[in-house]
Design a protein that fits this description.
heterodimer; A: 18 helices; about 0% strand; globular; B: alpha/beta; 12 helices
Chain lengths: ~475, ~300
């Protein structure tokens, strides 16, 4: 079931009503309902892969007991077995074909011709997310941050909770499991906040991201035909498309979870208002970057053991993060570019400069310096997005070359795009982020009641008019 | 919880009112300008002259002379390829082509029920190709947007497709628009062809240039439940059903499970003839001249069942 579908509009109220009106007397029943609803939510797409999800859940649940063993050797063995199991699943479904074809090319380069057997199976939706849930559980038990859960249903709800099942946020056992185990009471303020998040998320996805995707697809698929300004506009449009798409999904997930009394981890905090790349990564896909920080960067030594190790570790997490997104060189290069942007800040000790504040924290407008910093960061991020969006590394390089070539050759025979049309979609998201930058919990909340109602109605009308079937979320492919 | 439910319900109610006013406003604005409508609902081209076809059908159905009536239903392989005027003169019957773009079998059945209720039919040619077995947006939306069908009939066609919000929006808008004063506007698609009357559309496109433009393929065609329902409807109204398998370039149909009483015409041999490609403007549709040749070819086959 997609969030932006008619099925979800029917599914959500039914589950909500059952949850609060029928199963509200018992936590066990509520959790059981959430689990059944989550499997239904996933099985609607593919019941075969639902079995894989169940198997993965069961394995990590079992590893949890073994990893908790006081015998550290045994615990370490099963911790690694859990990692191999999860990464093995990812390796088969997501990376096998990539490695097989790369090996074929490498061997072909030295004159050895091999024809690898390639898998012709779809990538199970959400596999990158639920395997990371499972791994975080195993890691947390190994480190002593979490005790193994006896009740399988509670653990399964943590892994499969439908709002976060297919595209995150990537939750931590220590954050979500206590909520699963605690009795939940309906909280009016939380539910209202959830509805606001769902509305704003829908607007970002359906109105902004889906509209921009039409222009972006046209430009990226035929970049040879476009002028320099059109290509730059296309790259900027993609920056907002992916932001609208993914943060829209996360907002709907967070909002839906709130309706059921859960608080999920924030995934986005106005990333395009960042003043440097380090701040950008504290505001973009927060649950993934913090996952890599806690389970990869810090165990590798982080920045504690000298600059050379800090450089190595930084490159590792950014490249792995790129590779996590997809088995393709362009994602790895995308990660590498971000590592190059982050490293200078780390080396001069400026990577934690903007940790606690947001741009124009105590002012109405940003200073010139802040505008300059934000534009610089956005330009860098947009440049890197070209590699993320392009169908291959060759296309990404071709796209960037075409920006230069079109500028040199002139644009008489090249197509332009109406920039004004793009601004119609980009400005609301900038305005929304700017207005609510100090508190993401107050998203689209206006004190004036009439203004508030008017804004809700306009947003809802826009969503209704723009909603289309089969517009999937970009992050579903990861 | 009670406060929450009450608030959500009031918002939904308010939204419904705003939505209704909005739809009425946009529909009414078409009396003065089409900018609002095209900006919000898009310009819906006539996929295959359904606007003219549906209105002409009403007149055709109302005629009560002694000439037996024959109806052609099916997708674009029927309204572009089968020329009713030629059938008229060769059979001395009065034929009408009620086919439409991408018409699914479910919609063919709905339209046949509508035709049976409004005209005394003696023959039905059901044109079938593999795409008609599925469902699609275009098939229903074409009739919802362009035809003069009643709300109930449009709703039936709307229900034949999997509903999505876009379709619901269009359906509600078109229903409201037809209920209030508005101007009819035709959005002719220049690539669509010329409407030649009796539901037939004459293609403006040239013929295919090479015989091997399309890869050879085989399709196993089996009747589904809707075809059985169409046959039952014909039987109960004393209508002779002829199932015509549309000729498609480089494609061979393997017919399985079709009762002989369905009077099947398989045109694979026509499409396989050397030079047949010149009759087609693409793999499924014929040029204007190709359609005439094909209809003459079809007459000899149809006559055997009349």
């Amino acid at each position: 079931v997609l969030f932006n579908s008619l099925e979800f509009l029917i599914f959500l109220p039914i589950v909500f009503a059952l949850y609060w009106f029928v199963f509200n007397r018992s936590l066990k029943w509520q959790n059981g309902l959430v689990l059944v609803a989550s499997y239904f939510f996933y099985g609607w797409w593919s019941w075969k892969f639902m079995i894989l999800l169940m198997a993965s859940t069961l394995l990590d649940y079992t590893y949890g007991f073994w990893v908790a063993s006081p015998n550290r050797t045994k615990a370490r063995f099963f911790m690694w077995l859990g990692v191999i199991n999860n990464l093995g699943m990812l390796g088969i479904f997501k990376y096998y074909n990539f490695f097989a074809t790369e090996l074929q090319h490498a061997l072909g380069g030295v004159g050895i011709q091999v024809t690898p057997v390639l898998l012709k199976i779809a990538l199970p939706v959400g596999i990158s997310f639920y395997t990371f849930h499972g791994m975080s559980y195993v890691f947390d038990i190994y480190r002593g941050h979490q005790k193994p859960i006896k009740n399988f249903i509670e653990y399964a709800v943590f892994v499969c909770f439908f709002p976060l099942l297919v595209a995150g946020p990537i939750e931590r056992a220590s954050h979500l499991l206590p909520q699963v185990q605690r009795a939940r009471k309906f909280d009016y303020a939380k539910a209202v906040e959830g509805c606001r998040l769902i509305l704003w998320g829908m607007f970002k996805k359906v109105v902004i991201a889906d509209s921009l995707s039409i222009v972006v697809d046209r430009i990226f698929n035929n970049y040879h035909d476009y002028s320099t300004s059109a290509l730059i506009a296309g790259a900027i449009a993609f920056s907002f498309q992916i932001y609208g798409d993914f943060s829209g999904y996360s907002d709907i997930a967070l909002g839906t979870a709130k309706l059921f009394g859960f608080e999920l981890l924030s995934n986005f905090k106005f990333p395009y208002l960042s003043r440097d790349i380090a701040e950008f990564w504290r505001r973009w896909h927060i649950s993934l970057s913090s996952w890599f920080r806690d389970y990869l960067y810090i165990p590798l030594g982080g920045s504690r053991d000298g600059k050379s190790k800090a450089i190595r570790n930084t490159f590792i997490i950014f490249l792995v993060s790129g590779f996590w997104h997809g088995a393709s060189w362009n994602f790895i290069v995308w990660g590498g570019i971000h590592a190059c942007g982050f490293l200078p800040l780390l080396l001069i000790g400026q990577n934690r400069k903007n940790v606690s504040s947001v741009v124009a924290q105590d002012a109405k407008f940003p200073s010139f310096k802040e505008v300059y910093q934000m534009l610089g960061t956005f330009t860098f991020v947009t440049f890197a997005w070209i590699f993320f969006r392009a169908n291959s590394l060759t296309n990404a390089v071709g796209f960037i070359r075409q920006i230069g070539l079109s500028a040199v050759a002139g644009s008489k025979h090249l197509q332009n795009i109406p920039i004004g049309n793009l601004l119609v979609y980009i400005l609301p998201i900038i305005a929304g982020d700017w207005l609510f930058r100090r508190n993401e919990r107050q998203l689209i909340f206006f004190k004036n009641r009439y203004l508030r109602i008017a804004v809700y109605l306009v947003l809802a009308m826009c969503v209704i008019m723009k909603l289309k079937a089969n517009n999937s979320f970009i992050y579903f492919q990861f | 919880m009670r406060t929450f439910i009450r608030q959500i319900s009031s918002y939904l109610l308010l939204l419904a009112v705003v939505y209704a006013l909005f739809v009425i406003g946009v529909a009414y604005s078409t009396n003065y300008t089409r900018k609002l409508e095209s900006g919000i609902y898009g310009i819906n081209f006539q996929w295959g002259s359904t606007y003219q076809r549906s209105r002409e059908f009403t007149e055709w159905a109302a005629k009560t002379d002694a000439t037996p009536k024959g109806l052609i239903i099916g997708p674009s392989t029927a309204y572009r390829n089968i020329e009713p005027h030629i059938l008229d003169s060769a059979t001395n019957f009065n034929w009408f082509n009620l086919a439409s773009s991408a018409q699914t079998l479910d919609n063919s059945y709905s339209l046949l029920k509508y035709a049976v209720a409004n005209a005394r039919l003696s023959y039905v040619i059901l044109d079938v190709y593999e795409g008609a077995f599925g469902e699609n947006y275009e098939s229903s939306m074409d009739w919802i947007i362009n035809s003069n069908l009643s709300f109930n009939k449009k709703y039936e066609l709307f229900s034949n497709a999997t509903p999505d919000v876009k379709m619901i929006n269009q359906f509600l808008y078109r229903s409201v628009k037809s209920a209030i004063r508005h101007k009819d506007h035709l959005n002719n698609d220049p690539s669509n062809g010329s409407y030649a009357g009796k539901g037939f559309v004459c293609s403006n496109n040239d013929g295919v240039l090479k015989s091997n433009t399309y890869p050879a393929r085989t399709y196993v065609m089996q009747p589904n439940a809707t075809i059985f329902k169409i046959a039952a409807l014909c039987r109960s109204n004393n209508i002779k059903l002829i199932v015509n398998i549309a000729p498609v370039l480089s494609k061979r149909n393997v017919m399985k499970g079709w009762p002989a009483s369905y009077n099947i015409i398989n045109n694979d041999s026509l499409a396989a003839q050397p030079g047949a490609y010149t009759m087609f403007s693409d793999s499924h549709h014929m040029t204007c001249d190709g359609a005439k040749v094909y209809t003459h070819y079809l007459i000899s086959k149809v006559k055997a069942f009349l």
